[in-house]
């Protein structure tokens, strides 16, 4: 059974201390081996070569011992309904159009030769061109040359931006709660995240100001703010446009770059679009990240960074593989050029809207008093809040029994908060499974109430 | 004109010193801004927001200032013949078979759903299976589960292995000369490379022993040896099998992991295959890296690491993008399953053999006395040695005039050696261009001799 609840370990560092690591790093004295085992002593050599090489902890870099563990879902029990992960539904993947784009693109010999050769660090020309057109529409202004970098998904985009903007030990700001993948990346690179509360209207700007003043007074000004202002992961809330302007003003006053993660902006199910922070920014302090994972498929492993050219040209060397996958870039660029992606996004909006509605409806019907939740206008997530007298350990145990997997709120915080929150994703399951999954979760929550 | 000669900068660190970086990191006092510019003062705020955000050096992490520059070829002059880069010839790219593999793979809905979803950190199952079969043939033994990791090209494989095996400041061993990309990666991660000379029979084992004893006595034992034992880049030489056994024995005695870069092993043009170090290793100390860049196309951006499971499971968290590109992995895995890749490799051997022969023949006809070169049995490179009284600065200037681009030997060394060496790649140009390019280079070398 797969009940994703105890994922607090995502943030937890290994308990191996520096002293212990140093001890493990000390190797056995090689001199003694040298004396015993030389090629002049074939018996000893044969003995030595019969042994397995000892890949003990001392063989590995310190960071291997310090990094958070990778979250891996085990083989899932078909009886479990997972509302845990923000993965898109494979039923929506545009397999046939991608195959047709591959056929077209690879039949065009000059174009495929460019895409299949070692490429430019910024990315494949066709994908840059088509993405530039899409972003120009969204931003309401042309995308200038040198402002776009293609990456291997937005996971790599986050990693690259973090490494270019901050050194190990530096402070950065994150919304509380925030995307668990970013919490992991920040820990991996040794940054110290400071949380700024997120409310129903997005980031708390007064708290941001207070935190900035406190950190500056302490001599540890943050290197950047990481924000998900549109259809926030995990809460689903969106920062209104007038508060975006105010956020930009604060950032400008404090010299604070903003990493704007916009993974879900294309997936609005109702209401008026809100411009991205980057679209409102006339100063060049916003670093907008995006991905094709939610609108095409994660397996194309393509994301991007849109930012000031002075920043973009520093980012490329941090992609260890050089240029991002040329074949996939060409396929997706060709799919975009055909108009297929734009049509597909409209289809996705309808599909995911039905799932959001299924989840919201089921929550209204099933949830006991003492439970509240967000109703997002887009994206993949609903954020549940339980009243404090519900026993969350009992709820967690009951989700296992009920065969429903959810994400605990603590996984979305950097400091242990979120014990009485749950993130629900409505992206992966069809509406009937969502309805059933919410019913199971409601029973689990009731189990935690009865005995509290 | 593109004359790739002065690429010594690949290794050069920025001359910005630590003091200067620290100075740049100090920000202007934010307090003064706070006083002047608040939202209570709309005029000032408007002025502030009209300014561009200052992406000055202090905004960036220390590593941005310290890393070597990325080598970027400018737009190439069509008049220049490039023998500089080890890029495969796009004329050999299997575009149509890849398109057919994409069509087949994406028509199979269950398979494409797996490939297009977020994937397992180790890689796509079909690619792992097909690659496992290929490697089992080469290694003469089954490839056990958990011993393979798919990466974004072998560039990422090198970066991941280096980060898992060593910390900044640690010493590692490299052959001299070696692959310039690895020199860059090692510098990027702050390792201290110690060169071990490479001769006509591969790495100098006596020098290796001496270096190991010296470093151990100094308390700085190397964390690993990075070796390219088969069709070495840049020299083309191959370590004979009996010397491979001796190398493994030394490594076992000294507890020295070996990163074996085997980018060219499939491309043998004559002579008997030599088993990889990994195939000969019964202890599990060899970490074999490979790539699809030379046998399929660089744009598929796929490589791999074959190693002890104890190491493999530590490597995956160092791929920031999570699982490697599922779409491309599925396409290449399907291409392999069809038998297409095996047939293609045979075609490539014939194609590149003709180019090696064209280069060797041209060198014999054109090169003046005082120039020697290697005759590789496989791979992409020939290594030229000029006698010391040839003025290499004059030669470099003359290559610009002659419109031929080559790689200076210094780019393949960590310590400024190689001033009288040149790496020539015969992979990218058809035979007639190779012949003409060598004739141009011979004239440039004669220019350096006349005036010396």
How far apart the termini of chain A lie comes to: 25 Å
Q: What amount of the residues of chain A lies in strands? A: 5-15%
Residue stretches of chain A low in confidence (pLDDT < 50, at least 5 long) are 1-40
Average of per-residue pLDDT values of chain A: 89
The quaternary state of the protein chains shown equals homodimer
Please describe the biggest sheet of chain A, giving its number of strands, its sense, and whether it closes into a barrel: 8 strands, mixed
CATH class of the largest domain in chain A: Alpha Beta
Largest interface: A-B, 107 and 107 residues
Shape of chain A from CA axes? globular
Radius of gyration of chain A, rounded? 25 Å
Class inferred from helices and paired strands of chain A: alpha/beta
Identify the CATH architecture of the largest domain in chain A. 3-Layer(aba) Sandwich
Number of strands of chain A: 14
What is the CATH topology classification name of the largest domain in chain A? Aspartate Aminotransferase, domain 2
Percent range of helical residues of chain A = 40-55%
Widest sheet, order of strands of chain A: 2-9-8-7-6-3-4-5
Overall structural domain count of chain A: 3
Number of helices of chain A: 17
CATH superfamily of the largest domain in chain A: Type I PLP-dependent aspartate aminotransferase-like (Major domain)
